[in-house]
């Protein structure tokens, strides 16, 4: 089942984030910062975090939010599945949940920013297989040799 993040999930989520090999140390701490921001400020609505739970265990989560100054553009900030639970369709279920959240909130665009690094190939394939297209790329964005690839999906409103 997919439900909203709760304080009791923090420990398990932290463990999952630290198991993701393609995340740098900086990415891991930023991912965890967003979890804390959402937990410490329950009134905020820019980070909406939903967890995938099976038999009382957290297997993954996604974090989505509306982009400021737009009336219908959303960012998928993070989507993460525990390594041992990957390749079983959980990512797809989380992504579909995220898309439904966007549609329910009258969103028309959902963007996911990714790196061009080899270690992100599985992530890029994942977006392509789920019918995302590359809407833009910025060369040497993160660092020289590491470009930004923005995947997007448009929802007719
Ligand atoms: C990207 C990510 C969220 C995908 O999650 P996932 O649960 O592995 O995703 P799925 O299982 O839906 O799909 C992954 C692959 O498994 C395959 N698959 C799905 N169900 C399957 C099944 N029952 N049996 C065999 N293979 C299956 C899919 O074909 C898919 O292949 P593809 O990626 O080449 O299209 C996960 O790999 C992850 O957490 N990566 C590290 C973090 C990351 O990079 N996040 C994105 C940036 S924030």
From TrEMBL:
Q: Does the keyword Acyltransferase apply?
A: yes
The kind of enzyme this is, by top-level EC class, is transferase
A molecular-function term among this protein's GO annotations: acyltransferase activity, transferring groups other than amino-acyl groups
Q: Which UniProt keywords apply?
A: Acyltransferase, Transferase
Describe the location of the N-acetyltransferase domain by residue ranges. 1-156
Q: Which residues form a coiled coil?
A: none
EC numbers listed for it are 2.3.1.-
Gene3D superfamilies, per database record: 3.40.630.30
Signal peptide residue numbers? none
Query: What protein am I looking at?
Result: GNAT family N-acetyltransferase
